[in-house]
Amino acid sequence: MLVWFTLYIKQVRTLTSSDWVATFEIYAQSKLDELRNEQQQLKLIPLENDHKRLTELKESNIYIIEDKEIMGFGAICHNEIRALFVHPNFRGNGIG
Question: Which domains are present in the chain?
Answer without folding.
Answer: 11-36+44-90 (3.40.630.30)
